[in-house]
Every structure is written in structure tokens, then in C-alpha cells.
User: What shape does this take?
Amino acid sequence: MCLAVPGLIESIYGDGFERAGKVNFGGIVREVNLVCVPEAQVGDYVVVHVGVAISKVDKEEAEQVFEYLRQMSEEEPQA
Amino acid sequence: MKFVDEYRDPALAEQFAQAIRQLVTRGWTIMEVCGGQTHSIMKYGIDQLLPSQVVLLHGPGCPVCVTPVEVLDKALEIASRPEVIFCSFGDMLRVPGSSGDLLSAKAAGADVRIVYSPLDAVKLAKSHPDKQVVFLAVGFETTAPANALAVEQASRMGLDNFTVLVSHVLVPPAIEAILQAPENQVNGFLAAGHVCAVMGCEEYEPIAAQYRVPIVVTGFEPLDILQGIYMCVKQLEEGRAEVENQYARSVRPTGNQPARELIRRVFRVIPRKWRGIGEIPASGLGLAEPYAKYDAEQRFGVAATSVPESSECISGLILQGRKKPPECPAFGKRCTPEQPLGATMVSTEGACAAYYRYARGR
Ligand code: SF4
Assistant: This one.
């Protein structure tokens, strides 16, 4: 139930507790409340759970998994 | 889909699996707390990529599964009233109460509706001023901001016909309850990424220190989970017990401040009963005093009752990682997703349903 999916913000409207926007999830566009991600702008990816964005995806940190793998294979002396 | 597909690359998954095989020197038991992770693990066969020394146990992180029978009974009682539109997330509809489920109530004429978001229930209340709209607010910390926001919006709109039936639970007290059990076998945890996206990682520090367990905040895609396991095994092999963050693309160390602020305002921490496990102190959220008028239990006067659970279902042991679903005699026989005896077979994130769907033939 904690399923949350990243989507691309296409537009932002409303303010206060009604700040919302259209968010595109791989072609499916839904209205999402953006109150909890005041820093997020059009063009950002946000993680959305039950209609509310709970986090902005950090594009640099998103590379971390692959970077970790690269480092691991460089360090790997025993294999 | 961006930020999804690239974390499902099978060749990179194999690289992580190989690294884990090279790293491990002895047996370790790791619990993934969140049912969403259990689902990914079974769906992608991650457990089968791991060396035999690394055993994954499935934790209590499925809100649908741990919602007690009493709450379902209260939901059924409220939903049966003629003035009520009862709204819920779809996966709650087939969870058995002591007599029937919400789906059967709907078949019998109750106005039960599936909503995608609690905010949709607020919209319904606004467009049906002659009706009482009730939302079944279950979930972990991940869902708490949305539910808090629904109550806050209703309050700002001055809606008098919107209430919530709250059964919110919190992850850290559940982890502690598992660690305190005398038969505990868990050496390390994968903490639930989306819970931490809201709450941050800080509240896990004292748990890691006190019980000497590594806790790795982990995402939900196969590469996330494999990296989380790798980081956890590495800590165990090196004798460390720290909180690490695998899922930094979505989890900030201090979480989401506006979301935490909303939760703090609308909710307060209370003891909660967990289905199959029992009461855990300070393990849930209820409405804070200023929002008491949005409490469906008060509005409809549904009494506090205690209901015994089915004796056949061992989901309590499964939710604590003490048994795996195939060890239940009813699994796949008297209990299937079509005819569930327990909530862990209803929710797609329940361990029994995940095993039934992906691992029956293994
Ligand atoms: S298989 Fe069914 S009866 Fe057995 S523990 Fe799972 S939900 Fe309960």
C-alpha cells in the first residue's frame, strides 16, 4: 500500500493546501497534490502516493546505484 | 518509465547478486519491513538470486494486513447506515471482518466506494452535502500526509459531513517489537523507503544502536533491494550496526518537512492493536484533539469492541517473520486470494498473496 510512483510534473496550479498539478506517469496523466513538495517545479519528477507527492526525485542521487556498482567492480580484487 | 525501468536491469541485478555471494561468509537473516518490497522480491525472484546463507524474512509492513478485525467491523457498521457514503482504498474491500467484508456490504446495498486518494473523498463530501462521507484512513507513515491533508482540507472548507475512521500504524515501534521478541532471528533490516521519504532516517538511529542491528533504508525496485541487501550484509560482515540510506534519490535524512508538519498537526501518537500481533505501545496515530470532530468513531458512536481472530490463520506469525506462508496448513488450499482467510492473503502486498502469486510452483 506504500506503493508510490515517480512521475513528471507537467503543470502546477492552485495554492495553499490546494497546490496541485498534472503529473505524467509514463503516459498516464493524473492530478496530484503538491503541498508537501513546495520546491518542485514543472519538469521535476516527484514520488506520488495516493494522490499526494511525498518527495522530489533527486536526479544526481538517482545515479548512486549505478555508481555504487561501478565502484564495487573496480575494488573487487578477489574475483 | 523513467526512474523505474533502469532499476530493473537483470544484468546489473546479477552483478549485485554476485557481489553478495562474494561478500558473505556465514548465515544472516534480513527482514524487509515493507510489503511492497516483499512483493518485488517474490515478483522478480530476488530471493532466488541470493546465496543460501542470506535468508529474507518478510515483515509487518502491510497496512491492510495489520488492520485489526475491530476496525473492519466498525467500518461495516458505519457503511451500513443509509446516510453514509463509505470510501476506502480498493485493497481494504475484501479484508474479512468478523462477519463479512466491505465488498459484501456493498453487494447488500451499502454505498461503498473505492477512491484513489483520500482527497477524492473530500471532494465527494463537498459535492454531496446531504450525505455523510466517511474515509477509512489506514496506512503507515507514507500515507499519513495524504490522510492528514484530507482532514485539513475538510476543516478549511468547513465541511461538516466528512469524517475519517483512522487506523494508522508506525514502523519503528513494530521493528522494536520484533527485536524484543525472545525468539527473534533478525540480524538486519531493510527499512521502508517511502516511509522514510516522509519521516527521514533519524528515528532508526537509536534502534540500530540499542539492538546492534544494521538498518538500511531501501527502495522498491530490484536493484534497490539488491543494493540494500548488499549494504546490510556488508555491515554485518564488518560488525557494524548503522543506519544507511540506499534510497537517497527519494529519501532525505530529515524526511519531508511539510509532510511531517502536517502529520504533527492533525495526528497524535497512540497505542494501536496490530492484527495478528496484538497491541504495541505508541505504535499508531489517532486524530489530535483539535480535529476530534472529524473522527468517525465519535460521530457514529461505534463502540470499542475486541474481537477474537480466526484461529486457523497464522498471519500473526508470518507478519513477525516467524513463519513463511507455505508453512500455513491452509495456504493455497482453504485459503486463496479468491477465498482469503486472512488479510495477508488479500492485499497484493501481503506475504501470503505474494507467495501464492509468484512462488506456488517453486
Ligand atoms: S495462508 Fe491464509 S490462513 Fe494461512 S496465514 Fe496466510 S492468510 Fe492466514
